[in-house]
Specification:
heterodimer; A: 345 residues; alpha+beta; 60s Ribosomal Protein L30, Chain: A; Phosphoribosyl-aminoimidazole Synthetase, Chain A, domain 2; 4-stranded mixed beta sheet; 8 helices; 13 strands; 23% strand; globular; B: 201 residues; alpha/beta; Rossmann fold; 6-stranded parallel beta sheet; two-stranded antiparallel ribbon; 6 helices; 20% strand
Chain lengths: 345, 201
C-alpha cells in the first residue's frame, strides 16, 4: 500500500493556478471531474441544481474534510467526504439523496492523485446511493492549503419520523455498531510510521444501509436516536447525549468493541480509545425491550458484525459519562478540553 | 512442546536504531544516557559478530523538504551531513546499514525482505528511543510474525521512566525483554528462547 502522494509534482501532471481562473483550463478540469464521477454526477453545469424530492421534510448537513494524510488504507479524503456527510444525514433518520462537492486544491497537487480522489468519491457515492448534483473547484497557491480540502453538503428526505436526541429515555440501551478507534490508530500510524497501519484499517464507510437495517428491524420509535461517532470519539457522543437528556450515560468498558491491536496502539501512544475518531461507527439509543432485535439485525450487516450493547441511559438528575472499568470501579469521564489528536477527518 | 502455545527463536538478527550523532546530541541528558548504555551495546555487538549473528543498523535520514521536529533550530539527520552518521563505536564492515524515514524500522524500508532473506525469525532490538522507534519496530515486527526481544541493557531513552514503560508495554503485548547476557548464554547453551503465541481476538 502506498500512502504517499507523488512528491515531485513537476514530474507528473499537476494542478496549476490556471485551473482555477474560470478559463479553458478550469473548464477542462471540471469536465475531467464530471467524467470521472460518471453516472453519479447528475448536475447540468447550470448555476444551480434543480432537484425533485418527495418528502415534506428535508435533512441538510454540511461538512469540510481536511484529513492528513489524504490517502490511507481503506479510503482517502474523497471517501471520507462522501461517507461523513451521508452518515450525518442517515443518523437523522433521513434517506441521503444528493451531495454537493466543493474542492479546494493546492497548486502542485498531482492530477493522478486528484483522479484517484474523484474515483473514490464515485465509488462511495455509488455504494451509498447518492448523486452529486452540484460542485465547485478552487485552486489556491502553494502553501495556502494542504494538497486537497473537500466540502460536501448533503440533502436527505424523510420517509419516516426524524430521530432526535430529545427522544432518548432513561433505561434505553446504548449500542455501538462496530469497533472504535481504528480510524485514528490507522491514520496516526501512517503519519508517524508506527507499524499498525497494515493491521488496523480505517473503518470509513457509508452507514445509511446499516441505519436502514436497524430501523427496519423494530417498530417505529423503538430506536430513539442515532449518532455517528466521529471526532471526539465515544466520549464526545456520550457527553452530548448526557447534556441533551439530563441523564448520565452509563457504559461498561469491557463491552465496548475494540480491536486488540487498536488497544495496543492506543496504549503505546498514551491515548484512550474512547476519545479516538471513527468514520464508520454509530451509537444507537434503543428501547430496552427491542435492543436485542436491533443488535441481531446489525450483526447481519457487513458494517455491524461487531456491534455490541455497551451500556444504558441512567436516571435523570446527574448528567455525565459514567464508565465502569474492567475492575468494576466506576469513573466519571471528563470531556476533553481540546483535540487529543489532530486532523483525522 | 505445544507448538500452538510456544514459539522458539531459531535465527536472530540484532537491529540497532538511531544511534546517530544528531539524535544522541539532542540534549545533555541523551548524551549521558547513551554513554551509560554504550559499553553494553559494544560488547553485545562484538559477541554477535563472533557468532555470525546478523547486525542491522537503522539510520534515520531526513530531507530538506521533510516536515519534522527541529533539533537546535535545524532538521536533524539531514542527508549528507555529519549529524546523520552513526557513532563510530557501533559499525563494522559486515554490518547491514538500512535507511528509514519514520518511527518503525519496517515502514517503507526493506527490513522485512532483508530479514526473510537472512532466514531470521527473531529480532533483537537495541538503540533508542525505547518509547518510540523501539516500541513501533517491535509492534511492526510482531505483526509480521517475528519473535521480538527487547535487549534491555542495549536500549535507552532520555528518561528512565519512558524506557521502563516501553519495555513493560513490549513484554505485555508483543515480545520479551531480556539482557544481552541472557541472550548470549541461551545461544551458547543451545537453550531455546521461548515466546508465548498470542492469539488476537
Amino acid at each position: 500500500m502506498n500512502y504517499v502522494i507523488a512528491e515531485d509534482a513537476a514530474a507528473t501532471e499537476a494542478v496549476i493556478l490556471d485551473h482555477g481562473t474560470g478559463a479553458r483550463l478550469s473548464r477542462e478540469l471540471v469536465e475531467m471531474i464530471a467524467a470521472e464521477l460518471g453516472p453519479i454526477y447528475i448536475g447540468e453545469m447550470e448555476d444551480s441544481a434543480i432537484l425533485s424530492l418527495s418528502g415534506e421534510r428535508l435533512a441538510i448537513t454540511t461538512d469540510s474534510f481536511v484529513v492528513q494524510p489524504a490517502f490511507f488504507g481503506n479510503g482517502d479524503i474523497g471517501k471520507i467526504a462522501v461517507c461523513g456527510t451521508v452518515n450525518d444525514i442517515a443518523v437523522s433518520g433521513a434517506i441521503p439523496r444528493y451531495l454537493t462537492l466543493g474542492l479546494i486544491l493546492e497548486a502542485g497537487f498531482p492530477m493522478p492523485s486528484l483522479r484517484r480522489v474523484i474515483r473514490s468519491i464515485r465509488a462511495a457515492a455509488e455504494e451509498a446511493g447518492v448523486k452529486i448534483v452540484a460542485g465547485d473547484t478552487k485552486v489556491v497557491g502553494k502553501g495556502a492549503a494542504d494538497q486537497i480540502f473537500i466540502n460536501t453538503t448533503g440533502i436527505g428526505e424523510f420517509r419516516r419520523p426524524p430521530l432526535r436526541m430529545k427522544d432518548v429515555r432513561p433505561g434505553d440501551q446504548i449500542i455501538l455498531s462496530g469497533q472504535i478507534g481504528n480510524h485514528a490508530i490507522h491514520l496516526l500510524s501512517i503519519r508517524e510510521g508506527l507499524g499498525f497501519e497494515q493491521r488496523v484499517a480505517s473503518d470509513c464507510a457509508p452507514l445509511n444501509g446499516l441505519v436502514d437495517t436497524a430501523l427496519a428491524s423494530v417498530p417505529q420509535g423503538m430506536i430513539r436516536s442515532i449518532r455517528d461517532v466521529t471526532r471526539g470519539g465515544l466520549c464526545a457522543v456520550m457527553h452530548e447525549y448526557a447534556r441533551a437528556t439530563n441523564c448520565p450515560m452509563e457504559v461498561r468498558r469491557s463491552d465496548v468493541p475494540v480491536m486488540w491491536e487498536t488497544t495496543m496502539g492506543a496504549d503505546m501512544l498514551g491515548l484512550d480509545v474512547i476519545h479516538l475518531a471513527n468514520e464508520g461507527c454509530a451509537a444507537l439509543f434503543v428501547d430496552p425491550d427491542h435492543a436485542q432485535a436491533v443488535l441481531a439485525a446489525l450483526h447481519l450487516h457487513p458494517y455491524g458484525k461487531d456491534a455490541a450493547i455497551i451500556g444504558s441511559v441512567g436516571q435523570p438528575g446527574s448528567e455525565g459519562f459514567h464508565l465502569t472499568q474492567k475492575d468494576g470501579s466506576v469513573v466519571e469521564v471528563e470531556e476533553l478540553l481540546g483535540a487529543e489528536i489532530p486532523r483525522l477527518c | 512442546m505445544d507448538e500452538d502455545k510456544i514459539k522458539v527463536a531459531r535465527k536472530m538478527a540484532f537491529i540497532t536504531t538511531d544511534l546517530q550523532q544528531d539524535l544522541i546530541e539532542k540534549s545533555p541528558e541523551r548524551i549521558q544516557r547513551v554513554a551509560e548504555m554504550l559499553p553494553s551495546v559494544v560488547r553485545f555487538l562484538h559477541q554477535l559478530r563472533e557468532r555470525a549473528i546478523p547486525i542491522i543498523h537503522q539510520q534515520l535520514v531526513y530531507r530538506e523538504t521533510d516536515h519534522v521536529e527541529f533539533f537546535n533550530g535545524r532538521i536533524p539527520c539531514l542527508e549528507g551531513t555529519k549529524g546523520v552518521e552513526f557513532i563510530p563505536e557501533i559499525e563494522a564492515d559486515k554490518d547491514i546499514i538500512m535507511k528509514k524515514r519514520k518511527d518503525s524500522g519496517f515502514y517503507e524500508t526493506n527490513l522485512d525482505e532483508t530479514l526473510k532473506g537472512l532466514g531470521c525469525d527473531t529480532i533483537l532490538l537495541g538503540g533508542m528511543q525505547a518509547q518510540i522507534c523501539i516500541q513501533t519496530t517491535g509492534a511492526d515486527g510482531y505483526f509480521r510474525g517475528y519473535n521480538v526481544i527487547a535487549v534491555e541493557d542495549c536500549i535507552t531513552s532520555t528518561r528512565e521512566e519512558d524506557k521502563r514503560r516501553a519495555l513493560d508495554w513490549i513484554s505485555g503485548y508483543c515480545g520479551r525483554v531480556l539482557s544481552s547476557t541472557d541472550i548470549i548464554a541461551a545461544y551458547d547453551a543451545h537453550t531455546p528462547i521461548e515466546f508465548p503465541v498470542i492469539y488476537t481476538p
